[in-house]
Each structure stands twice: as C-alpha cells, then as structure tokens.
Amino acid sequence: MGQDTTRRAPIGVFDSGVGGLTVVRALRSALPGEDIVYLGDTARVPYGSKSPRTVERYSLACQQFLLDRGVKLVMIACNTASANALPALTSASPVPVIGAVLPGASTALATTVARHVGVIGTLGTVRSNAYAHAIFARDPGVVLSSLACPLFVPLAEEGWVDDEIAELVARRYLVQLFAKDPAIDTLVLGCTHYPLLRDVIARVARSLAHHEVFVVDSARAMADSAREVLGSSLLSIDNRRTAPGRLDCFATDTSRLDELATRFLGEPITGFELVDL
Amino acid sequence: MGQDTTRRAPIGVFDSGVGGLTVVRALRSALPGEDIVYLGDTARVPYGSKSPRTVERYSLACQQFLLDRGVKLVMIACNTASANALPALTSASPVPVIGAVLPGASTALATTVARHVGVIGTLGTVRSNAYAHAIFARDPGVVLSSLACPLFVPLAEEGWVDDEIAELVARRYLVQLFAKDPAIDTLVLGCTHYPLLRDVIARVARSLAHHEVFVVDSARAMADSAREVLGSSLLSIDNRRTAPGRLDCFATDTSRLDELATRFLGEPITGFELVDL
C-alpha cells in the first residue's frame, strides 16, 4: 500500500465480546474522522476462563480477520487477550498493535502523585497480574492494590449504571480496596465494561478516600495511545474533516448484540455482520 | 454388574461449573447414604453462550467421564446441557439420566393452583424455552412468564445472598415478572445458582404478589426425581444407614474452586481432582 492508501485505511479493534465498543466510543471521540472495523468474538466470550494457549489462538484469528480487512492499526480491547497474547499478536502483525493494559498503566503512572495506584477488573485480569507487571516494570516503587469486581460486568450489561444498586455495589467493592490502601489517588478501570460505571465509581471512590481520586479509563487511554502511534508514523487521517468515519461491526454470534452494543457504543449501531473465524 | 454392586455404585452429577453443587447438596439431604461423583467442566464454563452442537459434544464427554467411574445414574445439573443435550445423553447412557428442566417443571405443575407459573434463569435458559416446552407439553393451559436475571449468578458467587443489595436486585427483577402476570403463584428457580438466593427471592416474590408464592427449587426437584428413579428400579442403597456417602469432586480447571464450592455445597469440601476431558 502507498502511504496515502494506508492513511485512509481503517483502525481495527477486537474484543471477546461487545465491551470493546467502549474503546470504539473513545476512538470516535478522540479521532472522529477515522474509519473503524470492530470484531466481537461473541461466540467464544468470555476469554477470561480459557487457557492462555486458547486465548492466544483465538486472538490471532481475530487479528487476522482485521488484517484481512486492511487495517493500519490493531487494538486489543480485551484485557485477557492483551495479557496473554500481546507478544504473539505483535510478532504476527505487519501494522502496530496496541493492547489494553499498557496505555492504562502508563496513564496511571503519569497521573499518580502519591504513587499509590488501585486497579479494578475482572477476576481473570486481576489474577493475570498484567497491570502489576506493566506498572512495576516502569516504576517498582509504586504501591499497587487490585480487586476483582465481578458484579460490575452484569451491572453494565443491564444498564444499571448510576442508581441505588450500582452505588451500593461500588461501595461494597471499593471499601475493600481503600481498606487495603487508603492512600490510593489513582484508580484504573481495567475492564472494557467499567467505563459505563465511571461516574458512580469516581463518586464512591472520592467519598471513601476523603481525597481526590483520579479515575483512569483504559478505553480512553487506548484512544490516546492510538492518536500518538498514528501521528508519529504519519498514518493519521485529517481528523478536522467534518465527515465522521465509517464504523463496520462484525461478531461471531448475534445473541443480545443490538441491545448491548448501543449501550456500550453510546450511539445507535447500524448492525453487526455475522462472521465465522 | 450384579444388582448389589450396582446398588452400591455412586450417583454421577455434572455441570458446566460449580453451581451444580447445589444439586449435590440437595441429593445429600434427600439420599444421605449415596456416594456421589461430581464433575464441573470449569475450564469451559459457561455453556450458555455456546452453540447447541458444542454443548452436546461437551456434555457427552462429561457424561462419559462419569460412566467410566461406574455411576448408576447420571444427573445433568446444567440447564443449558439439559435443554440441548438430553436426548443425546439419554441415548448414549446405559443408566438412567435426569435433566435439570423436567423435575422443576413437573413440580411446578403439581404445585400451582392458579396455573400461572413464573420461571427465572439465565439468559440462555430463558431463550432456550426449555421450561416452556416441558410445561406446555404436559399442560398447554398454563400461563407461563419467564425472566432472565443475570445479576443473580454473580450475587450467588460473591455470597451476597441475603442483604440489602440482593433484596434490591431481586425486587428490580421480580417487579418485572409480576407486572407481566400478577397471578403467578409458583416460581421456578431455573438455574443451579439460584437456590442460594432462595430466601430473598421467596420474600420479595410474596411481597410483590400480595399472595403466597411457592418457590420451586430445581435442585431439590432433581433430588426427589433421583429418589424416585432409584427406588423404582431398586437401585437405591439403604439411606437409613448412618455413614454418610462419599463425595468425589472433579473439575477441568481449578480457578476459584475451593471458595465457591463450599458456598454452593453448604459443607466443607475436601478438594477437587483436576481432569482433562
């Protein structure tokens, strides 16, 4: 491809399910002119309970699907895929690959003043220690506390994101996190679903900490990272152009997609095309 | 096997995960002297998001594992496996097979006076219409309303089963069910996890209905069905003997097993043996 062709190529995003649409949402806000191809491997969701080898195999298939559509950048919205398959994906890709963990970890390090960071995510992400590895590799002096919050995913999927139940659940979890380390001043949302609960999480964290707590949305951190990568390799299209970019969505199973997708994307979706990997 | 050998053989129970231990719990209460072999296919949980063909293949492997251990009866604790694989499992088994759906459906029909029945379960179970098929085949005149309650599974797994959050979540769901049909007098817990939330579900249902609502616990209905099947084929051991039966547990992945297992079984567990199917 010539450079101009490449510049007009879409950005590829994949996830094990529909949660990765929060990354698409952040991308469309940060880089409104870019075309995007999204793939949700909804037939095999969740990746979190599968072996690293299986996750790697599925992730490579997802990435290949995007590469076959000529993407100029691959974004792994799934934390489990990022934790288990980033090296394999990077070495199999001719274009840059951005994982879900590093951007959030870097933003957290750039943000924390106290150097006390909290990470919340699924059980699989917390167990993988992916954020701990990323953060300690850059600053071994940071105090890191993490906590799995299993109810946040179904709360986000039900759309119960800022009500009495969401508030009580957030309080029940975060009180445990701030009991571990009351000095946390930066909290990483280490799951694609959690940005939907951002407001209630931020409010409860502040009230428990009795000081300001900066919430790092890993979807937004990924979008910032995409802007940097594309800008530095001169692959960014002119995002001042008025026409919004195309969004093409693919999924491996259509169960409950339309209802959930609109919730995560934050705009109406024109539909998913069913694909077999 | 001679009849006496067969009589002393264990009962086999399988599930996609650990939720099926609620069936083991009910069995140990109804038939305390019986030995039990339990298999949780925890590496491939959940079955609900997989294709019927895959569910059938996995279920057959689980059943074969139990048959290889010489069980005299196979119990499918998983609703998805029951809905998708019961015919294949029955025809592949030399011993009786009890699914998760029929016992609960039959108990509901025997219980309801108004002939208005509610069924709650996972999204997969509700979508499969398995309870509707089972109930309408026996009594087409019943009015059936069903509702998926996705938060009940993580609530049960967290052990948040009878507190303010559980009550609010139960109310949020059940108000929708009783809005569909205020005349429901029998509510089927169509998911292995839900018996842990039985108290709060029963209380909230009663307060919304303003009349008595009988809660059918499908785990208990399965245990009653096992007693009948074993009794009628003279395969039941003498359950008046004082020594409690052995319980051997197997799983295909050990992640989070010990914490969850004790919660669902209601007694300390001696541990799981890891197997590869």
Describe this structure in words.
The structure is a homodimer of 277-residue chains. With 277 residues, chain A is of the alpha/beta class. Chain A has two domains: 3-98 and 220-274, Rossmann fold (3-Layer(aba) Sandwich), CATH 3.40.50; 101-219, Rossmann fold (3-Layer(aba) Sandwich). Chain A is built from twelve helices and ten strands. In chain A, the strands form two sheets. A six-stranded parallel sheet of chain A has the order 4-3-1-2-9-10, sandwiched between helices. A four-stranded parallel sheet of chain A has the order 6-5-7-8, with helices on both faces. In chain A, α10 links the parallel β7 and β8. The longest helix of chain A has 17 residues, at 52-68. Chain A binds chain B through residues 42-45, 49-51, 123, 127, 150-151, 153-155, 157-158, 160, 164-165, 168-169, 172, 253, 255-256, and chain B through 42-45, 49-51, 123, 127, 150-151, 153-155, 157-158, 160, 164-165, 168-169, 172, 253, 255-256.
